[in-house]
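Re: export button greyed out
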Amino acid sequence: MFVMENCRIDEFGQVNSILNSFSTDMFDGVTFIVRPVVGAIDYLRSMHQSYLFQKEIDKISNFDFETREKFMDILTDLVVDRLYDDEFINELEQKIADFNEISEIFKELSHRKLNIEQKQMHRVFKLSLRKLNGRIVSIRDEINSSMWDDSEDVAQLLLLDQLFYLIQEIINEALDLPPNKQKEINDLSHLLAYSLLYIEAFHRSKVSYDDLQSFLSRLSLCNYMLNKNLEDNDAIFETLVV
Amino acid sequence: MNFSIDSNILVASVNSKDRLHHKSIMIFKEREDGKFFLSSTVLTESQNLFRNRINQVVVEIIRLLPNFQNKRLNRMEYQEHLITSFRQIKSENPGISNFLDLVYDEVNDFLKDNDSFKLPSFLSELSVKHSQSLYKRIDEIYPNSGSLVVLNHKHLKAVKEVTLDTYFKDMNDERIFHELMTNLPDIAPIHFYTGDSEFVKKINKSYSRCAKLFELEDDSFICVLVKN
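Workaround output, generated via the alternate export path:
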């Protein structure tokens, strides 16, 4: 039975439709974060290192829809009723280790197998983040296109777009960090994984629309804390009187 | 004395037209020496409200755009249609004229170097950025670092058990209450300010049981109703 049958078929039709259309990209996005070598395989080939991972990456490419969905379904359980915290990534890795169909493959894809210097490892991480960003650009283009349609619920589409926009901001923040800030890059990457999985959790009806809104507010606070150079204007607060 | 506030007080403190604005600002001024503990639910609830209000305006703007988007218009004609659309929204919403003027200027700047087809995405990002003004205002009103209070799961079961008979119709009110009560040992003594008399009644019904649970004095938590 396809897990996708548990996905939303309620009043969030257009949001659901977009997330369905980009389900592969969401899976790839999570994979790029938890196993950056997947996103950087072409670079690793140029470094004569791809032989370490090519077999496993080919296996991931050949995952059937059901396996991918099961993977996302298992991981999305992690974000329900919990805020992002330092333990999240350890629990995510444990879930992957417990998932028999993929655990060996993901174990082999650990970047720790790479015997390269920090600068090149940094390159691997950056390439994967850029690939993730590319997927999100496509998703946002689709949302933008949908917002022109009068019959669509633009408020819901705005919420979805704003989540992906803030995810892009986290990616940009991580891309701006130098190689000696690998810990900070890792922290931001873990938050990215949590964020993508939270959207998927909504897609799978594991969190509510209200929960999604609150999550957006928390991401917005993170974004504000990272870039406190916001220009304020009294006029904005007129909207509170509406 | 430590202090905390409800969402209605937070929103009132950043909105000069709110009936409780003056009183809310006074709370911060009078409690300058105390530590500010903000419930994470209060912050997200306030931000949700603010962002949704801005999004409502954005939805109106996007709704009017397609009427002229696909027509073969030169830049001047597009500009004219844009002005007419904004005028229409202004006439329907006179209370947000200045905000609409701000957005109009930002849209025009965007259109100098970008395709009008991307306007919905641009407006979406603008809404997020503008809604973050809430955080900036809080920083300005209370520049000393306050603390965000999140649910302490260690104490949640015990707090729920002693407050079993208190029913909160509003889920956010319940979360705010639990966030404060599960952290009571770390934040007491504390005054909590709210403009919601129903919330005060519910809190007053049960907070003393939480104080007893943590072996604190009854006045370690005081709920204050802020009236106009």
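The interface with chain B takes residues 83, 140, 143-144, 147-148, 150, 154-155, 158-159, 161-162, 165-166, 210, 213-214, 216-218, 220-221, 223-224, 228, 230, 232-242 of chain A (CB under 8 Å). The button fix ships in the next patch.
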